[in-house]
């Protein structure tokens, strides 16, 4: 990202943060919060892209709040373990959750019996960042474009496997939706982590991997993978050579995203403060640059805006799950 683009993005986010601030009266500001360390529960493993993002934001927010911010990793069961842990926390604003779209939109539908009702048990705080899905193949693969992949899969329909992350996540559904949109015999196989799905392609056990840009970027830069397309509306500015799938298949626009939620009952004044401080942090040029390096872009929203967005996304992905005949996982 160029310096001028970083300044433009940061200025836009700062404007959003200021607008959110001016709509809240001084009387609504929380008194003496936080009064102790703040915990961010992350339903993802340590060392993953979401973990790195959480620690970047936690470090910045800790400086704003004058309290340490601790990231607690709680992966497993499609995010259920982390969400159950967070639901049991005190509703005083000292426990937050940073979660990917898959957890906030699909876990409730896919894991039965439900141990947590995510939409009812949690309050929307703010959208954090969005980023398109990416598709990559092994560096030595003869496939260089989506058209190559479609042609090869149609020629050898029993061979082509798309490695994705856990069952019926955004990447997994993206692979199924792509197969349907292109009339391509592509079998999607979910792995327990991004690292495992990437290894499957590098080792030749799968022919293509679909995931967010963050977990794939390092392997592309390291020469182990070759990116062939992104699932954004159009080509993204810092990767103009990479075609958008939507150029050939307009319906295939798929963005992953990350949002912050809090246990339901957290004081609205605290929710508002977290949003405003998060928006301010996301406007800092060094944060914009680091997130851009992961292929995700800051997009803070107020609690009300995020609640609307979250509900729309849940409806979209629940329909996608039904369309592919997804069956709930019995726990």
From TrEMBL:
It holds the Pfam family TctC. Residues 1-27 form the signal peptide. It comes from the Bacteria. Keywords: Signal. The keyword Ribonucleoprotein does not apply. Belongs to the UPF0065 (bug) family. This is Tripartite tricarboxylate transporter substrate binding protein. It comes from Ramlibacter aurantiacus.
């Amino acid at each position: 990202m160029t310096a001028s683009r970083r300044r433009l993005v940061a200025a836009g986010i700062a404007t959003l943060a200021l607008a959110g601030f001016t709509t809240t009266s001084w009387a609504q500001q929380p008194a003496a919060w936080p009064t102790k360390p703040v915990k961010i529960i992350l339903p993802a493993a340590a060392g993953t892209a979401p973990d790195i993002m959480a620690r970047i934001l936690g470090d910045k927010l800790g400086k704003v709040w004058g309290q340490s911010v601790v990231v607690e990793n709680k992966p497993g069961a499609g995010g259920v373990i982390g969400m159950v842990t967070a639901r049991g926390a005190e509703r005083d604003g000292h426990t937050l959750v940073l979660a990917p779209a898959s957890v906030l939109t699909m876990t409730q539908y896919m894991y039965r019996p439900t141990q947590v009702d995510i939409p009812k048990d949690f309050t929307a705080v703010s959208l954090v960042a969005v980023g398109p899905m990416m598709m990559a193949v092994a560096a030595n693969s003869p496939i260089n474009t989506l058209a190559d992949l479609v042609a090869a899969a149609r020629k050898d329909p029993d061979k082509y496997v798309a490695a994705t992350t856990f069952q019926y996540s955004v990447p997994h559904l993206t692979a199924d939706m792509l197969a349907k949109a292109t009339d391509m015999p592509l079998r999607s196989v979910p792995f327990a982590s991004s690292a495992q799905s990437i290894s499957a392609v590098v080792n030749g056990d799968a022919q293509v991997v679909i995931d967010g840009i963050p977990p794939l970027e390092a392997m592309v830069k390291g020469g182990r993978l070759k990116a062939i397309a992104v699932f954004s509306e159009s080509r993204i500015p810092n990767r103009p050579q990479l075609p958008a799938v939507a150029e050939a298949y307009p319906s295939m626009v798929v963005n992953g995203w990350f949002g912050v939620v809090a246990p339901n009952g957290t004081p609205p004044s605290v929710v508002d403060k977290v949003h405003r401080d998060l928006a301010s942090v996301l406007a800092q040029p060094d944060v914009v640059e680091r997130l851009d390096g992961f292929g995700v872009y800051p997009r803070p929203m107020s609690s009300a805006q995020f609640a609307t967005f979250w509900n729309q996304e849940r409806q979209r992905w629940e329909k996608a799950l039904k369309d592919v005949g997804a069956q709930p996982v019995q726990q």
